[in-house]
């Protein structure tokens, strides 16, 4: 029996909905479904009594046990390409060993601040606006550093410029005092951070400080103000107080102590 609802017969409406849903399926998906029918069981078992299976990393597993992030990562892996910046880094620093998986997670392990993560993303993918790139993109007449007139490449901007070299020497001496280990602060250390398995609090602290320094250098150079180590320490201390407050709000004081106390107490 057909029932009239808002002027449309139910049976008619169901047909329209079904047709609408079918029409909404992208052509490429339909092609895949058609192709899957012609292959051996690959990803779907259409039987109500059997679990619906999906192929995840060469294993068929019940779709109910698969997480969204697992399904998402499998789909992403199909289309992902190696970023072109990797080739550039590897040819410029041919003597170094790049562990890209570890390098990419550094900004996410050492901070939750998105503006810092975003800065590091720009550096890794080499589209940070130093004068070298601005000139390349025809946005600036000169590719020279405004502080010392050398070519303002990424490594120059953050590590080799006369305006920042003294700063890194002071930071190195300070780090040796509080953490009792020596980091050379090479241009590569500064630009990409120190890869770690995430278990070393000291390295995580160091990576956070280096990222915070890069943001500080960027702010100073953008506003043409001196890059001063003591001024930086004041800013870092303020940042640590905010961090401690955030942890305290969620009753995570102990976690803050374990993770940040060595750095926070030294300021
Ligand atoms: Zn310079």
Task: Describe the protein in words.
The protein is mainly alpha-helical. It is built from 13 helices and four strands. It folds into two domains: 40 residues, no CATH class; 182 residues, no CATH class. Strands 1-2 form a two-stranded antiparallel ribbon. A hairpin with a 2-residue loop joins strand 1 and strand 2. The longest helix is centred in the last third of the chain and has 22 residues. It is extended. The N terminus is likely disordered. Bound molecules: zinc ion (ZN). The site of zinc ion has 8 residues, from helix 9.
List keywords for this structure.
267 residues, disordered N terminus, two-stranded antiparallel sheet, two-stranded antiparallel ribbon, 13 helices, binds zinc ion, mainly alpha, 2 domains
In short:
The protein is mostly helical.
Summed up, the domain count is 2
The H-and-E topology, N to C, reads as EEHHEEHHHHHHHHHHH
Mean pLDDT: 85
List the bound ligands: zinc ion
Helix content bin: 55-70%
Lay out the secondary structure:
Layout: E1 4-5, E2 8-9, H1 10-24, H2 27-38, E3 53-56, E4 59-62, H3 68-79, H4 84-92, H5 100-110, H6 114-124, H7 131-136, H8 154-160, H9 162-179, H10 187-192, H11 201-222, H12 229-249, H13 253-265
Antiparallel strand pairs: 1-2, 3-4
Helix pairs in contact: 5-11, 6-11, 8-9, 12-13
């Amino acid at each position: 029996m057909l029932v009239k609802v808002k002027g449309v017969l139910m049976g008619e409406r169901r047909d329209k909905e079904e047709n609408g849903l079918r029409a909404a399926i992208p052509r490429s998906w339909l092609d895949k479904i058609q192709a899957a029918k012609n292959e051996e069981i690959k990803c779907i078992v259409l039987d109500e009594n059997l679990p619906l299976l999906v192929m995840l990393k060469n294993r068929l597993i019940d779709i109910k046990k698969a997480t969204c992030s697992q399904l998402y990562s499998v789909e992403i892996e199909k289309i992902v390409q190696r970023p072109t910046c990797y080739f550039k880094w590897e040819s410029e620093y041919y003597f170094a060993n790049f562990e890209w998986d570890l390098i990419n997670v550094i900004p996410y392990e050492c901070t939750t601040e998105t503006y810092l993560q975003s800065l590091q993303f720009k550096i890794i993918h080499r589209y940070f606006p130093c004068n070298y790139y601005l000139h390349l993109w025809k946005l600036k007449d000169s590719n020279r550093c405004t502080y010392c007139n050398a070519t303002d490449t990424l490594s120059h901007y953050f590590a080799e410029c006369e305006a920042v070299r003294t700063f890194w020497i002071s930071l190195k001496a300070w780090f040796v005092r509080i953490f009792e280990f020596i980091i050379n602060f090479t241009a590569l250390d500064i630009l990409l951070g120190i890869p770690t398995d995430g278990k070393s609090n000291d390295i995580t602290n160091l990576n956070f400080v280096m990222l915070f320094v890069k943001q500080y250098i960027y702010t100073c150079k953008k506003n043409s103000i001196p890059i001063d180590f003591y001024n930086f320490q004041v800013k870092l201390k303020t940042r640590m107080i905010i961090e401690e407050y955030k942890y305290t709000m969620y009753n995570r004081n102990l976690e803050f102590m374990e993770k940040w106390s060595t750095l926070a107490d030294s300021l």
